[in-house]
Specification:
alpha/beta; nine-stranded mixed β-sheet; homotetramer; 12 helices
Chain lengths: 302, 302, 302, 302
């Protein structure tokens, strides 16, 4: 048995190592369905016990995944449909979705590393309203009800010398939003999930997730208000790729020939702090940033 | 008499409308000298009374200006000399310059508007150390004494929905720096000052300064720790250009022919929210960002 | 009489100094109408004689202007309507608009200077097809007829050491497009025209136009194939602002009091290589880049 | 035996699969030495026969490699020393290095993908002189002898619809440089070579090299003038990582247990168009761009 924890930010992938029977036993409920008209497969995982959280290595809460292979392509109308569906799913777990509130959107990640620039890209395209509503009132938008939306890109620790969580916590204490929505690039276990899967969760962001090292949690516990996280896997940990490839090959061999333990592979592969990503990642991240920011703009409209 | 306040962020220019005799009377002391070996003219203005502050329309405190016409050019060795002189001047008004302390550098302005990108550019090139010192200690740098330097680019209100001052205040309360150093692009009154003048002051940044609208003060009063501001004028307010050009022309006429009042000119010129800048502003801001970040790196070394 | 040529890239503004009667006399025909449903005012100027070209200081050819004040705002649906109208206007002077052809889009200007980044921004968002059609055929798009669209951002001379025209000419000779479409930021005479006016012309781009110094013509004469130019004024020459402000003031005085000649104003104003632009120019250029690239994508679809 | 060609752009790595004896036989000469004072290991490989070219899968010519592990770090003085050594090595194979000539620097790669942005970054920092020398003469630099340096970033085919080679060829025919120097991000076979190895060669750039798909050769044959290429490996092909990891593990087993053929591994790994890179690649590429552009500035000075 291995003590190596293969890294994935997707509840969907964490599930794969657990059997159906065990899921029920451990208080993990799973619902799956297709939205055929937009070619999206939706999975809703609810982890409702500590036992389940331990088995999944994910905190208790709701995890919604939209899988949309066509999302990698450049069809603008299709992306609008995805934005609308994503908005619906976000609203389904957004506390106070139909009430006026103040929402802070946090774009985690590194603007200067293409595969990690999803969060900053979403905030760049966000429709922010807080400053206008505060200065001119809702009348400025000819609306009776308006959310106050603000956005921040805290940057990465190597550039700021500070944890993203320190910056966000400070901003939260000053501006008192009712709710935080964090966007981040995620790490998947398998390259087949890259750039076509969106995960929405009400558990926030845990230490060590994402491409960069966004330490310290962005969670309700830490920040004092609910934290919804939206993410798309854009990279796979390089060591994971090697481990998985070898295990896949070994599986086809008789037991006695399975020569390599996961840990020994990992130790030998010298791939710390390396990740795998695709060649057209610039176009993909640019497009996903629009799709997600559009979803937020729709979800935040009253 | 005009009620129109011509806008300048430079104490040097604010001085120009005040006579020598009046300066003394009002508690404004001025010292000027040349550093010939590096072709820099240095002016140190101290405003030590409220009366002087009112006359100058600037808060009480120290204002140091380095004028270096050659700074616009691409001579790398020269820029290093300027960085060294600037570091010396900064240290001359930096509280606790020789003690270990924690310093937060704030890069005001808009990364996406070339003439307003000085602050973000300086933070991009800054040597940040806080996260390393906190995690590995000073040993990581083989030093016995180290400042802890952090940096933030708060962004502009149109993009974040928040005042820069709200964000900085939150970060200050979370990370408790001993000192803040703010960098910003300034507005000059005259195009001759553009891109060749650096102002250092211990009075922080006041509302309405700079290219963008960075409202709410970044001052010791507001943030609770000393605030040093470093700025370079990169733009002139467009209305000011017109007013000044006309007044310059009128000055050559006999009194009775001076037909236009400042206010009427301004009213007619429809130049609100417009500014004047140079065509090669991209190269200049890029170079100045390096020169200033290098100066900060030198000033913060113990 | 002044020998100073006030600079404008807009035929619309060049017209303003010419009387109605003189227009007819000189072979300048003008047609104007409103598209009320989309709040656009369209002006079509045809210069059909050398005499007219001289009076207008613009080459013979067609000039179409769309004035849409609401274009400065962030209404996405409205921008789509503008894109569609602009596509129609472009097609009205595009040679071979309904035939399959190869089109090279040239994005002039400087990516690093916000007000000059319109051309690069349009090419960034363009739907390029040439490489796909050449490698996989039209089948790749499930279409029977496809234009082959390519795009280039030649950069500015200060960065490349070459004229944009040299680079474009080389690319044209290698890739043999049937048609060139150039996009550039323009200079207006009046700030009221900024960011709300789109000019389309079949006369290409002349030396000295635009924000930067894109010397050497991009014209049919020089490049050997038809050149359509699309531009939006994003700046006003700083000297022009001053000259115009003073002349406007003087106009209200009796003749004898008009004391300043245009040339003397210009000489005194020391504003060479300076320009005036607005504070939110980053958002505006970003939005205009999308609107124009969308118009090109529509116009180039068969 | 495998028909799978493990991909590397480094002659140094291509050599590793060839024995000493075979090298001599095939006309491959190798010289290695250390420059201890700057901690650089230099390898000069000369392929002087077709036979050698085939064995190495690299064209005949000179390949110089500088290995400098410390190059990954942020020591500015050290980088200047590397720039100076690199300049010396470039001059050693630069035709007409001491004569006045016209040099076109080509920055291959994709500005928007961090690991592929080395070429564009170098051109951004290059000292271009061609336009000044042509307009004002060498006097503008107070020099008696000056090279005319120009630079171009052709962009990637997905963005332009054109091969980089088409664009460069067109520019070469228009501007007639005596020499081309191409800069590109390379792919290494091993992660240990990343970001610390610089290769200089007089064989130009071959199809399929680098991160992106820069098809069509940039070679003397194709462009008509000598082509020097300078590159740094910033990525490893993802499939190569997996193949190499498995082969390394298998090597420790008795022959009979070596169960996986290279081709089967590769087939199963589904890693086409994926690459591996490091997490702090943004800082590294930024720094390397400066180091190389500085080396070119030194090498081109007469």
């Amino acid at each position: 048995m291995s003590c190596f924890q293969v890294r994935t930010d997707l509840a969907l992938e964490a599930r794969e190592s657990i059997g159906k029977a065990e899921e029920e036993l451990r208080g993990i409920s799973v619902e799956e369905y297709d939205k055929e008209e937009i070619q999206v497969h939706i999975t809703r995982v609810v982890i409702s016990s500590k036992n389940g959280a331990k088995a999944m290595n994910k905190p208790m809460g709701n995890y919604i995944t939209l899988e949309a292979p066509a999302m990698q392509e450049a069809d603008e109308d299709y992306h609008r449909e995805i934005s609308e569906e994503l908005a619906r799913q976000i609203k389904s777990i957004l506390p106070g979705a139909d009430e006026e509130q103040s929402i802070l959107v946090v774009g985690l990640g590194n603007r200067d590393v293409t595969a990690d620039a999803l969060g900053p890209g979403v905030v760049d395209n966000l429709f922010v309203t807080r400053h206008i509503v505060r200065e001119y009132g809702k009348a400025a938008y000819s609306k009776e009800r308006m959310n106050m939306v603000s956005g921040i890109v805290p940057g990465v620790m190597a550039a700021t010398g500070m944890e993203a969580a320190e910056i966000v916590k400070g901003v939260v204490e000053q501006t008192k939003p009712d709710l935080i929505l964090v966007v981040d690039a995620l790490a998947a276990r398998s390259t087949k999930r890259l750039n076509r899967t969106i995960q929405v969760t009400d558990t926030g962001i845990q230490p060590g997730s994402g491409v960069g090292n966004h330490r310290n949690a962005l969670t309700r516990d830490n920040l004092g208000v609910p934290v919804i996280a939206v993410g798309v896997p854009t990279v796979v940990d390089a060591a994971t790729i090697v481990v998985d490839a070898i295990e896949k090959l070994q599986k086809e061999l008789p037991e006695k020939d399975r020569l390599f333990g996961t840990d020994s592979i990992r130790t030998m592969s010298e791939l710390n702090n390396m990740y795998v990503t695709g060649k057209n990642i610039d176009e993909i991240v640019k497009r996903l940033s629009f799709t997600i920011s559009e979803a937020l703009n729709i979800a935040f409209e009253l």
